[in-house]
Amino acid sequence: MRQPLVMGNWKMNGRRSTVETLLKGVIAEISGLSGVEIAVCPPYPYLGLVIERLAANEAVACGAQDVSAYADGAYTGDVSAGMARDVGCRFAIIGHSERRTLFGESDTVVAQKFARALAADLTPVLCVGETAAERDAGRTQEVVLRQLSAVFRECGSGAFERAVVAYEPVWAIGTGRAASPDEAQSVHRYIRDVIAQQSAQAAGRLRILYGGSVKAQNARELFGQDDIDGGLIGGASLVAADFVGICRAACIG
Ligand code: 13P
What we know:
Bound molecules: 1,3-dihydroxyacetonephosphate
Order of helices and strands: EHEHEHEHHEHHEHHEHEH
């Protein structure tokens, strides 16, 4: 039985005051919620603040939105996986489609970041997913396979033993048009099958999150699918009541 995981990706949003308000709201509303693991991923400058506020609250973990492909050293502007771990992060989102598209991260760079996260004892959350054009061309599986294969090449057949995968179809991110439960389930199943070819044990334990326009209203049906083990939430994670509503749906789903 895989415990559901719901993660909030705040992206590049917030100020000290809104971070405080959002956290207070989440912490107040999640008390008593069980059967779901919850994490939030704030922008780097607020990691310290968030981790300090969460210290007394075992129920919510913290993650970084990205880590460097390099170890510590002369890499101006980057933040290493070791640093994220050192300040108290448990997770690191790796290869989000915004990083791949807007910042030109190749599959190889994403795989190097994944390896850095593992080496620093962070749980990497590898984002995979196709664009609308790729889906229309019937290339969804091919794209996801390419993205997973780069990580296997870098980290070997045990790559996903201590990791999470997030299926985030690019066309569903921030558009209000989530994948249908059937559409998502079929890609999640495919991801699990690909990983099972390398390690059946890792595949059975692996949590595969769905991300892309998840709301409290559609979360329960998505999370009710066999191979959907929670969600990676963007916009709705910026409103405490909406985020907690999604966490609740994961408990029941
Ligand atoms: P939205 O929930 O805003 O569609 O964003 C999803 C996402 O990119 C999470 O990483």
